[in-house]
Amino acid sequence: KMIGARIDEVGFGLNTGYGLNLAAQGLPLKRGDEVLLSDIEFPANVYPWLALKEKGVRVKFIKSTNKYFDIGKFEKAITKKSRVLSLSMVQFFNGYKNDLRKIGEICRKNKIYFVVDGIQGCGVEPIDVKKCQIDIFSSGGQKWLLGQSGSGIFYVRKELQNSLRQPLASWLGVDWNLDFTNLFSYDKPNFDSARKFEFGTYPYAQVHAFAASLELMSSLGIKNIRNHNYKLLDILISFLKSNNQFKINSNLENIHRSAILAFSCHNTKLLYEKLHQNKIYCSFREGSIRVAVHLFNNESDIKYLIKILEKFTK
After folding, report:
1. In this structure, what DSSP letter does residue 172 have?
2. Alpha-carbon torsion, ordered 144, 148, 151, 152, to 10 deg
């Protein structure tokens, strides 16, 4: 429900990289084919594709514009050999939310597989994998989904499942019909679902914790969570705009903004250290302070952050 998929299109993954590697190794790519990537992707969505070079698959990076994915440059980069675009739902360092629906339309028009790294948006931004025409979607559960490390989900479009190779095979990827009394049966059929791409015994502690997180977030509603986060960030944005010592490095258009806000100042690294000294935990990414608010944050958290920012600039 959270991503608009069918039950038989979703499997349990260990992290975001699991689903991305499934895409890289499973899609029917051959020597001479081209994979398109943004030049500002998180490494987890780069190295699985670079590993295909030994098979003769070419990786082509699309140059960004002002550190944002440029749809126009993407369209110009498409050639007859282009087979895959793999892209983040939300960029990790500045919170730029890509227009997945428009990008998906371009991919489908050009018969390009559309793979999405969803970890910085899944659980905090509404998404419909069908409307966005996504072929494979992957997200770890340890960030916005509030699960533990070692948890996550992957989505494989139903129509793609039979043509997707199985780079890894597991005895639990076949249908035992819950009958484990005859384990010498080696002719069991694969599950007719994304489960056939799962790998081995589940990490049950992570699964149960992840399930509890999903129940909580579903009860609150993703749109409600997003609106809560935006309301908090609006307070911070208003302050940053009123103080000429700060520069906002995130796109604030509704279609592109997210729960991640990046900003900088005259000595950003020193500010980052000062924030941590005051128990404000954020990230230092690509020369900016990255603030990420979620459902457990409140206005007092933002006001405390602003208080420290004011002290720093005096």
Report:
1. G
2. 0
Using one digit for the tens of pLDDT, what is the confidence trace for 156-211? 999 999 999 999 899 999 999 989 998 999 999 999 999 999 998 999 999 999 99
Q: Nearest-CA neighbor of 66 among 286, 295, 303, 313?
A: 286
pTM equals: 0.96
Region at 56 (left for phi over 0; alpha for psi -120 to 50; beta for the rest): left
CA 86 to chain centre: 11
Residue 42 token pair: 């998180």
User: Do 91 and 69 contact (CB within 8 A), yes or no?
Assistant: yes
Cross-strand bridge partners of residue 161? none
- Return the closest-CA partner of residue 275 out of 298, 299, 305: 305
Q: What is the pLDDT of residue 314?
A: 83
CA 38 to chain centre: 14
- End-to-end CA gap in the chain: 48
- In the block, residue with structure tokens 């990289």: 17
Two structure tokens written together for 189: 């059929």
Residue 26 CB contacts under 8 Å (≥ 6 apart), including other chains: 164, 165, 166, 167, 197
Q: 259 near 96, Cβ under 8 Å? A: no
Q: How far apart are CA 205 and CA 299, in angstroms?
A: 33
Per-residue pLDDT for 56 more than 90? yes
Angle, alpha carbons 300-89-23 (nearest 5°): 140
